[in-house]
Amino acid sequence: WLSAFFSETWVRTVFDNPSEFHTIELILGVYAYAIEIYLNFSGYTDLVTGIALLLGFRLPQNFNAPYLATSLKHFWARWHMSLSLWIRDYIYIPLGGSQKGPTRTQVNVMIAMVLSGLWHGETLNFLIWGAIHGVGVVFLNIKDNIERKKLLANGMSKADVKVHQNRELIGWESYFYRFITFNYICLGWIFFRSVTFDDSMTYITSLFSNFSLEMVPYHDLGVLLAICFAVFYLYPLCVKIPEYFVTYSKKVPWPLLPFIFILILWGVIFMAPSGIPQFIYASF
Questions:
Q1: Which residues are CB-contacts of 206 (< 8 A; sequence separation ≥ 6)?
Q2: The pTM is what?
């Protein structure tokens, strides 16, 4: 329902004719698409996982709050995890992985990410989308290698360096790197969503040239700020809701549980849109 809402309200309108919209509306459009594709694909995965459980099969987790990632590497460890593992096992590792030196490692990363883009379709846009992610991961690998050498030169042990580089970011650092990562991912989504390369460039050009202080769409600015607040503050809280539900449902007397599940099912049916919402990944 939410995926269809974002698609109909912002995404289609803005992406169909980006040159006619203000910069704020264009930012809102690509943010809305980031949310649309996540809700669409992860929602489909949840449905498949639930049906499989009813049939006695336990499928592996495919999404783990990907927009909480503080780096592109963390994003790919959380987004479409089955595809990420397939790329690692059948493309990256057979190419040599990280066992043939740092330069060859970065080449292997680029090949793997570009092929992951072409897996979605044999178009220039999907190739660029994969290359954007490949360049981002290569940049992070080079940065990590430089940092590792500096820490080792300062007397830190290899074990401590590994712990330092894999530490969980907290406070302002986590919000800053999450913001950078999310916006870099959104840059890639422009190419992923646009039909042609020219459409993508029109969107990006309009994004930088259509800003005007005299014509700021304050309503859309408010919606944009609300989405930013939801993604960077409410989203981390919402991720914990299923865990809380499981924990507290165990404390509810079992005769009441059927009524709770009936209420949840009724709410889902009530909010569901009419017909069958478009499933984005059906095209791939």
A1: 18, 19, 21, 23, 26
A2: 0.86
Does residue 24 contact residue 34 with C-beta atoms inside 8 Å? no
pLDDT at 276: 60
Q: Assess contact for 33 and 182: CB atoms under 8 A.
A: no
Interatomic CA distance for residues 91 and 73, integer angstroms: 17
pLDDT greater than 70 at residue 130: yes
2-13 pLDDT tens trace: 788 788 888 888
Q: Under a CB-based contact definition with an 8 Å cutoff, are residues 161 and 148 in contact?
A: yes
Q: Please state, in angstroms and rounded to a whole number, the distance separating the CA atoms of residues 239 and 74.
A: 16
Angstrom distance (rounded) from CA 246 to CA 42:
19
Residue numbers annotated as active site: 120
What the block records as the tokens of 266 is 């009724």
Q: How many CA atoms lie within 13 A of 225 on its CB side?
A: 6
Q: Summarize pLDDT for 231-252 with one digit per residue, the tens.
A: 777 777 777 777 777 787 778 8
Give the length of the chain: 284
Q: Which runs of consecutive H residues, i.e. helices, occur in 55-123?
A: 72-76, 81-87, 102-120
Q: Looking at residue 171, what is its pLDDT?
A: 77
Average pLDDT of 25-44?
89
DSSP structure string for 170-198: -THHHHHHHHHHHHHHHHHHHHHHSSSHH
Q: Which two tokens stand for residue 96?
A: 């040599």
Handedness of CA 143, 144, 149, 150 (dihedral sign): positive
DSSP code string of 199-244: HHHHHHHHHHH---GGG--HHHHHHHHHHHHIIIIIHHHHTTHHHH
